[in-house]
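Team,

Forwarding the record for the chain on the shared tracking sheet. I've put the sequence and predicted structure together so nobody has to dig through attachments.
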Amino acid sequence: MIRSKVRSASRRLLATFGADSRSGRHASSGGSSIGTDCEDIFERMPVAVWLQDYSTVGSWLDALREAGIDDLRTYFSEYPNEVDHCVGLIRLLDVNRAALELVGAAGKEDVMAVSLEAELTDESRKSFVEQFVAIWEGRGRIEIEFVGRTLSGEEFPCLLRGSMCSPTGELDLSRVVVSIIDITERKAAEVRLEELVRSKDELIASVSHEIRTPLTSIIGSSQLLYSEGARLSDAEKDEMFQILVRQSADVANIVDDLIVAAKADIGKLQVMSMPVDVYAQATQVIETWDRRAVDHIPLAGESVWCVGDPNRVRQIVRNLISNALHHGGERVRVFVESDATTAHVRVIDDGPGIPMEDRERIFENYQRGTPIPGLTSAIGLGLGISRYLAHLMGGDLTYRFEEGESIFELSLPLSETDSDACNDMSDS
C-alpha cells in the first residue's frame, strides 16, 4: 500500500516538473555540464571527481514524504529494492581525468556507459543509502568510507565526499560534486598501527613477567642473606651472591634492550666505531651467562677484529643466544670466522626453523615467537634491536635455514687490523 502511494506521488511529481525539476525542498540551478571557465580546473584536479545530477532523486524523496514516509532508513530496510530504484534516478554529468585513472577507464565514454543500478554491490548500496539520507535530512555535505570497485572489478577502500550545496549555501541537487579518494595506504597503516598497539600491549605484559622473575630471585636471595646470613655457610653465601649477580644481569639486559628500542624509535641511538675482537666479545657473553643455561653451547672459531661498538656487539650476540635458548632446538652452537672483508658470527641451532613468511617479520620490534615449553617467551625486541644495531655499525643480521638448522648470522666490516692479518697470511 505504501509503495503504491509512493509510486503514484512520484509519477505525479515527475510528470509535473520533469527529471530536472525544482521542488519545494530541493532547488536546482538548471545546468547540466561544467562551464568552460571551470572545465580546465575540473580536469586538472588531482582528486577523482564525479559531477552528478540528483534532481530526480530529490523529487522522488519528496514523493516519499507526500506519501507519509518519515523514516527513510526504515523504509529502505523494509523495501531494499527501492534503493536500487533511487540509484537508477542519478544522472552522471561528467568525470575528470583522475576519476578515469581511479576506476581504470580508458575514456569518459567507458564511465558514462556504466549503469550504477546494475553495478551495485552491498558496499556501494550502503554508501548510496547514506547519500540519500543526507539529502532527506537537508545536509549539504557528506563523508563516507566504503569499498569501491574499478571497471575491472578490483575492490579498494575509499573515502567519498559529496557536496550538494550551491554557492549560496542552498541545497542544489542538479550539480552534486562527489570526490572519491583511494585510502588503501591509510587502511594498511591503520592495520599496522593496530598490530603495533596490540604487540606493545603484549610487550608490557611480557616485560612485567620477565622482570618480575629475576627480581623475585634477587629479592629472595637478598632477604635470605640479610636475615639468615650469619647461619649460612660460605658456599651457601657464594651461591646466593651468584644468583644476585646473574639475575641482576638479566634485568640489566632487559632494560638495555628497552632503552635501545626507545632511542631507536626517536632516532637518537648512536654507536661507537672502533676495532672490536668479535670472538672475545662472544666469549665474554657466554662466560657471564648462567653456566647451567649455556654450558652446552660450544664457541668455535678464532680471534676476528671488526669495526663496531663492543657493547653493542655483545648485546647482539647475547640476544641471538637468548633467542636460540628460548625458541631454538636443543643443540646450540656459536661460530666466529671472517672472509676478506667481513667478520661473521653465527648462532646455530637444530630447531624446527622459522616459516618462510615470518623470516623478515621476526626482525620487527615487538614480534615474539612461540617459546619452548618450560621457558618464558622473549620480550619481542631482541632480534629487531639486533638488526638495527648491526645496520648502525655498517653490517647486517640475517636468518636462513640450511640442512635442518636455523642460522642467525651477524656480519660486520673487518677492521684494518684483521684485514692486514689476512693479507699477510695470503702473501706468505
